[in-house]
Amino acid sequence: MKHKHFVGILLFIIAVILVGYVGISLYLILDQTSKIELLKIENYSNLQKIKELEDMIISANQSSKSKFVPRGTKLPQISLKSKELQIANLNFLNTQQYIPNFLPTTNHIITKSFLPEKNHFGIDLAGENGNPIFAAATGIVEKVKNDSIFGKSIIIDHLNGYKTFYGHNSEILVDENFFVKKGDIIAKLGNTGRSTAPHLHFEILFKEENINPEKMIKK
Fold first, then answer.
1. 68-106: per-residue pLDDT in tens?
2. What is the domain range of residue 172?
3. Sign of CA dihedral 100, 107, 111, 140
4. 104 assigned to some structural domain
5. Based on the domain organization, do 45 and 124 belong to the same domain?
6. Regions in the chain scoring below 70 on pLDDT
7. What is the number of structural domains in the chain?
């Protein structure tokens, strides 16, 4: 009887620990998801503010050009306060951090271009094994995996419709759900997966559609 009583208590303790572990795990997942959604909302709000500012400037310019203005007449000024311009500029700079236009390697040599007709949906950037790989923009690490094609690879969600993919790495330096900033080192260049020489396979997607990275990145 004592043995059965002891086993019952032990099972109860194990059950409490498991329930606590599951509860904490669910809380962390929900908390991380909430933070990602808040970042998406903030980025969307910033984009809307910048669009409104651009529309105001364009509208004012068109209005002044559409009418004949005698020489010497003082043109009306756009009614934007210094603080509003400063905030708009900061919002613009913040939004730019989430645009994947930062070259993710120290090497500019493209050994294979964007060729979707040949099922090559990114560009290959040659380099030396172990060279740093940088985040092309700020975002959340969505996926870290290792497969037979791209070897050790990373997908980053930039929370604005853009995602970037980094393949054939020799080492991954981030984990899933990590928040990374534009220019952060996220991996080391390698030759893993189906690869004949050390290089980075780099893709940019917008709303799940691949686009040509050469049109985006600043060399």
1. 555 555 545 545 566 666 676 667 667 889 999 999 999
2. 110-215
3. negative
4. no
5. no
6. 1-12, 16, 18-86, 88-90, 92-93, 219
7. 2
- Asked if 39 and 97 touch (Cβ cutoff 8 Å), the reply is no
Element (H, E) at 126: strand 123-126
- The amino acid at 151: G
pLDDT at 66: 46
Smallest CA-to-CA distance from 136 within 148, 150, 149, 122 is with 122
Distances (CA, A) of 106 to 12, 132, 180, 183: 56, 7, 18, 11
23 within a domain of the structure (yes/no)? yes
Token representation of residue 40: 């998406």
| HSE, side-chain direction, 13 A CA sphere, residue 181 | 1
C-beta separation of 152 from 146 below 8 A: yes
Based on the domain organization, do 88 and 164 belong to the same domain? no
